[in-house]
Recover the amino acids of this structure.
């Protein structure tokens, strides 16, 4: 895949290499990546957001392995190098250049109000760096640099996407029509609940998630810990641990099985032990092929390096063209 397909609708997204992918990442983001790559009308680029990852505390010795891990898992999940372009964000420095240019037209006060920034100030008070504030600007650059129209992400990323849209509109108003206003692409599960029963599944709470690489024993243990209730009542809970279990039942065992459990809840009572054991087993069976495919790519890492190199070259061609257009419009050229 070397030609740039300008007639196609461009798609872009990325994940921070802050740890292995969990089921929330899979159903909220990667599933969207896969749906879009299968549509021949779309030109898809997916990257490892390593520049975003370093805005939270991290270990530079381990970081290269974490970057590699996301690349392996992208491919293991089914991202197909014949359909999509994969690359590592920091190897396309045009992202940083465009981010700086866009930063000059966006007010600091708006960034300070974003829920993700406020949350990080609470969760990492010892690491409130400028990169954290700049995060949505870099994300806008990631998207606008490719004239992307669709961005598959989970629900928590919508405020960031709104910033990207706003920046595109403002840029066009100030300098003339240049940038495309992107839209989010949400999957059927844009926010998978946490196993703790509170909030969403997230890498920041190890009790909250199941990883795609978990073995069956780990899955059983984690599912066994999900808080439940007496198992009967007038209506099945819409929140908490029971709701999280039923969301997973629907994803892995189908809507019919979920409806059956909901019926049991209001009639004979729901047997959580049975539900949990069957669910854990089914989850493991369904993620096992991903784990096997990841092992293949780990052994054949030279293939992965070539895929990333092709992706980087492809991305750079588009990036250079768009960046030149932006600089021209901003007056960054000789007369
Ligand atoms: P985390 O929030 O666990 O640190 P990331 O921020 O790296 O994960 O998210 C990578 C992608 O996965 C983003 O598009 C994000 O919206 C999506 N995502 C993360 N958690 C969930 C979830 N629980 N449900 C649905 N999508 C999610
Ligand atoms: N902020 C996203 C997350 O936490 C990762 C990301 C960085 C991204 N740049 C992006 C997602 C551009 C979509 C498009 O998951």
């Amino acid at each position: 895949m070397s030609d740039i397909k300008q007639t196609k609708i461009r798609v872009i997204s990325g994940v921070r290499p802050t740890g292995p992918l969990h089921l929330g990442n899979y159903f909220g983001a990667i599933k969207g990546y896969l749906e879009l790559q299968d549509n021949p009308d779309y030109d898809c680029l997916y990257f490892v957001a390593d520049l975003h990852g370093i805005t939270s505390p991290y270990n530079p010795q381990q970081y290269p392995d974490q970057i590699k891990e996301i690349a392996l898992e992208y491919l293991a999940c089914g991202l197909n190098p014949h359909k999509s372009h994969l690359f590592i964000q920091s190897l396309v420095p045009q992202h940083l250049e465009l981010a700086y240019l866009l930063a000059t037209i966006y007010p600091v006060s708006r960034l300070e109000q974003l829920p993700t920034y406020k949350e990080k100030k609470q969760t990492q008070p010892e690491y409130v760096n400028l990169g954290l504030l700049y995060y949505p600007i870099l994300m806008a650059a990631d998207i606008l640099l490719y004239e992307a129209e669709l961005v598959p992400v989970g629900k928590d990323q919508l405020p960031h996407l709104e910033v990207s849209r706003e920046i595109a509109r403002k840029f066009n108003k100030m300098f003339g029509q240049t940038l495309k206003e992107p839209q989010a692409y949400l999957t059927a599960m844009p926010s998978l609940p946490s196993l703790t029963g509170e909030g969403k599944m997230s890498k920041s709470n190890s009790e909250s998630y199941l990883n795609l690489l978990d073995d069956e024993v780990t899955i059983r243990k984690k599912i066994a810990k999900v808080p439940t209730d007496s198992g009967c009542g007038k209506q099945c809970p819409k929140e908490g641990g029971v709701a999280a279990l039923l969301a997973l039942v629907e994803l892995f065992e189908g809507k019919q099985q979920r409806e059956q459990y909901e019926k049991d809840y209001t009639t004979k009572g729901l047997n959580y032990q049975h539900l949990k054991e069957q669910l854990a087993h089914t989850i493991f069976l369904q993620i096992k092929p991903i784990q096997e495919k990841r092992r293949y790519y780990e052994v054949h890492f030279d293939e992965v390096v070539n895929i990333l190199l092709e992706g980087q070259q492809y991305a750079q061609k588009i990036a250079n063209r768009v960046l030149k257009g932006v600089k021209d419009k901003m007056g960054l050229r000789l007369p």
